[in-house]
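G., the chain you wanted modeled:
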Amino acid sequence: DTDLLETKVYSEEYYGGFVDPTLDKVAVKNSYDLYFLTNIDTPWKEDDLRDRPELRQKMFDAFENTLKKYNRPYLLLKGDKETRLQTAIKAIDKLIAKRTDLDSFSDSLDS
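Predicted structure as tokens:
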């Protein structure tokens, strides 16, 4: 899903490097346990959101460079849909196994 850091990258790429100062501040401050970066090793398909097929590598590089710049933990998802899904599931399972606060979190969902 789109998050603030991704929105920042789109702003930089689509508006000549401009990022609203508020977006810039909160995008850098906000972070997650893990980001998934999808490789461009699948055929490009046009839809209402995708554009610039000739710039796929440039956009991929912009996202990866931003993750590296801000030291965000990320996993590169490659291959077909099933391979990507299984890779993501394994990574999520590892993260969940390390968490010690999930019982208290799940209890709050019942309230």
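The radius of gyration is 16 Å.

Shout if anything looks off.
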